[in-house]
UniProtKB/TrEMBL annotation:
Cofactor(s) listed: Zn(2+)
Protein name, UniProt field: DUF2817 domain-containing protein
Keyword Coiled coil part of the UniProt annotation: no
Family according to the record: Belongs to the peptidase M14 family.
A Pfam family that the UniProt record links to this protein: Peptidase_M14
Organism: Svornostia abyssi
Length: 236
């Protein structure tokens, strides 16, 4: 498959992330919102800005589960298939990532804060006072509503499987599992998760969780997951 030659150039920390293509217009990372503690939430576009299909990849939603960041960093250097742009979002929960906590700065589990089947929960899975009470959740919802990604991949730890989300494309999810070398599993639906909300709100779109193993990923594992994202994108 022919692909355009796109190069991602990372700016200094704290400044926008820029990208450019030979002979094409410059691309820039976008601040899509701010956290409770006013940290920016940035998405980086990798690939043709006019691509009709998007793949959203989120490295870290729980600050205690950061292994996916190695994959999102690697995805900045790839060449997506024709017609596909990657939306690479390292941290939807920058406060939790900075503090090493599961929840955001108010202790809310962002993956229990989305509207689909939301209910009040306490403890470590605190779902917040209401659905979308948190600025980070609202930023994610706004991005998904605006971009309508064909596929959304959210990295978690540490169950070590690809979670087959009901309502999403089973073939694509199983492809990701096969290419990445992971097993696939079906787990009971949880209240207020972003993938459950996405699959319900946008029928025909695929959103799923990849539960990475505990600890840091090896370079070989990062390569397999990067390849799995591109293999999935090539099928859209």
């Amino acid at each position: 498959m022919r692909v355009a030659a796109w190069t991602v150039v990372l700016a200094l920390a704290g400044t926008p992330v820029a990208a450019h293509a030979a002979g094409g217009p410059p691309l820039r990372g976008e601040v899509i919102g701010r956290s409770v503690q006013d940290r920016p939430i940035r998405v980086v576009r990798v690939g043709d800005p006019d691509a009709p299909r998007k793949v959203l990849v989120v490295g870290c939603i729980h600050g205690t589960e950061p292994a996916g960041l190695a994959i999102t960093r690697a995805l900045r250097r790839v060449v997506p298939p024709d017609g596909v742009q990657l939306l690479v979002l390292d941290r939807i929960n920058p406060d939790g990532c900075a503090a090493g906590t599961r929840g955001n700065a108010r202790g809310v589990d962002l993956n229990r804060n989305f509207p689909r089947a939301w209910r009040p929960l306490g403890g470590v899975f605190d779902s917040g006072p209401r659905a979308l009470s948190e600025p980070e959740s609202r930023a994610a919802r706004a991005l998904i509503r605006r971009e309508r990604p064909s596929v959304s991949i959210w990295y978690h730890q540490a169950l070590n499987w690809v979670d087959l989300q009901p309502g999403s494309n089973l073939r694509l999810m199983r492809m990701y599992a096969r290419v990445s070398g992971m097993r696939a599993a079906v787990t009971p639906p949880l209240p207020g998760t972003v993938v459950r909300w996405t699959a319900h709100t946008y029928p025909g779109r695929t959103a799923f969780v990849v539960e990475l193993p505990a600890g840091r990923l090896s370079s070989a594992a990062v390569f397999r997951h990067r390849r799995a994202v591109l293999a999935l994108a090539s099928e859209l």
